[in-house]
Amino acid sequence: MTFDEYQKNAIGTRQTYNSKDQENYFLGYLGLAGEAGSVLTTLKKKLRDGDGFGTFEERLAEELGDVLWYISAIASHNNLTLDEIAQLNLSKTVDRFDEMDLLNIPRLDKNYIEQFPDTFVVEFIEEPAGNDLMHVKMNWLKESGATKLGDPLTDNSKTPNNYRYHDVFHLGHIAFLGWSPVMRDLMGLKRRSDAITLDAEDRGRPQVAEEAVTLIVYNYAKGNKMLKESDRIDTDLLNTIKQLLIDLEVSVVTSFQWEKTIIGSYKVFHDVLMNKGGKVEVSPKNRTLKYLGK
């Protein structure tokens, strides 16, 4: 039996009730909550009685079936099908939990002459900035010498918070995702060879979106031990990131891949912070970000 077949048959078993409040709109929701409780009661009996609860599987199947019936009723009332609900849920679950290799993300700049180098090194240098402030300079180390990237950064905060090192996260976006409109600007790699791509992917709005992602994640990290002990990111935060990046080329990146990017970037961030600067190897070719030391 398919979901659609089940739903069509289930519609015919709906009851009528004396209450006319909103045409029994709430009854499906209340029934679902009640049957979910029955599933938990069945689990309680299993935990209590162990193997003595010999009909556990049969009772569980029965209670889950009742849950499915109420889900079907709610869906039908709102002109939704179980089939489309199942497909949407599976897409969401795959996006969040499918352990895809970061190397499977296509190089977003593979068709342009303005490509990020396959592997390059950036150095962070911390120096006094006066007025009891510290600032961080960032240099791109090349065979021809060091190229300054942007202006020195302070924390931009009344309370020191180490945000002056946040460019590590932009480098992480390059390393793990092959994307960073902020660093494209600083490195002189805007895709001027394609006017549409230049305007849609490398200018103001994408740069603002990337800075917003960096700041939102940083504020989240401050409430979670700066992610020193984390290997997971809240799904709500990942959903917010994806909302910020709708219609941009990086929207193809899954929530799982963003999670790996954030965790990997923060690991290197803490290495740089602990050593008050140093060299970072960025490799969009290998999808790696490494701290090389001072």
In terms of per-residue confidence, which ranges show pLDDT below 50 for 5 or more consecutive residues? none
The total number of structural domains is 2
Helix content: 40-55%
The radius of gyration over CA amounts to 26 Å
Structural category: alpha+beta
What does this protein structure show overall?
The chain has 294 residues and is an alpha+beta fold. The protein folds into two domains: 3-97, Helix Hairpins (Orthogonal Bundle), CATH 1.10.287; 102-293, no CATH class. Helices cover 49% and strands 13% of the residues. The protein is built from ten helices and five strands. The chain has helices at 3-11, 27-49, 56-77, 82-97, 167-177, 181-187, 195-201, 204-222, 235-244, 255-274, and strands at residues 120-130, 133-142, 145-148, 277-283, 288-293. Strands 3-2-1-4-5 form a five-stranded antiparallel beta sheet, with helices on one face. Helix 5 (167-177) crosses helix 10 (255-274). The protein is elongated and about 80 Å long. The chain starts with a helix and ends with a strand.
Summarize the SSE layout with pairings.
Layout: H1 3-11, H2 27-49, H3 56-77, H4 82-97, E1 120-130, E2 133-142, E3 145-148, H5 167-177, H6 181-187, H7 195-201, H8 204-222, H9 235-244, H10 255-274, E4 277-283, E5 288-293
Antiparallel strand pairs: 1-2, 1-4, 2-3, 4-5
Helix pairs in contact: 1-3, 2-3, 5-10
Which descriptors apply to this entry?
alpha+beta; 2 domains; 10 helices; five-stranded antiparallel sheet; 49% helix; 294 residues; Helix Hairpins
